[in-house]
Here is the input.
Amino acid sequence: MTQRQAYIKAYPNSKKWKPESVDAEASKLLKVPKVSTRYNELSKEVNEAIKADTIASKQEVLEFMTRLMRREEKEMVVTSRSDKRVWVDEKGDRQEVSTKEPVIVEINTRNTDAFKGAEALAKHYGVLASKDVQDDELSAVDKLLNEIMQGAADDPNS
Here is the structure.
């Protein structure tokens, strides 16, 4: 809402005024300390509310990465469905019509995305930073990632 619109809403009789007059009065009103203080408070509240709704929290990110790693997230992909009609017309000739139409299908999270989710969580928790693991030993994360990849290889939907 503009300053002009706010003034007209607060003072309905000002609708009859010239726009320049409304602007001038609205500007004067905003210079009043009480009004400008309240305006700044409300403005700050609105900006914080917008930020809270648009920026993911740390917890949200961790929960999403966990769902991704566990392959609980679904992904929508577009594929095509083929349809073929065959018939014999009155003359005895074979007729055929093939059509393809786009179809949206829900699939499980891809293995690469599950791996990225696990890797991001491992980095967050510092699991991959361990220097005391021998080269021939697998860390807990490596084992987990291998289990995920093995399970995905066994899953025909991946």
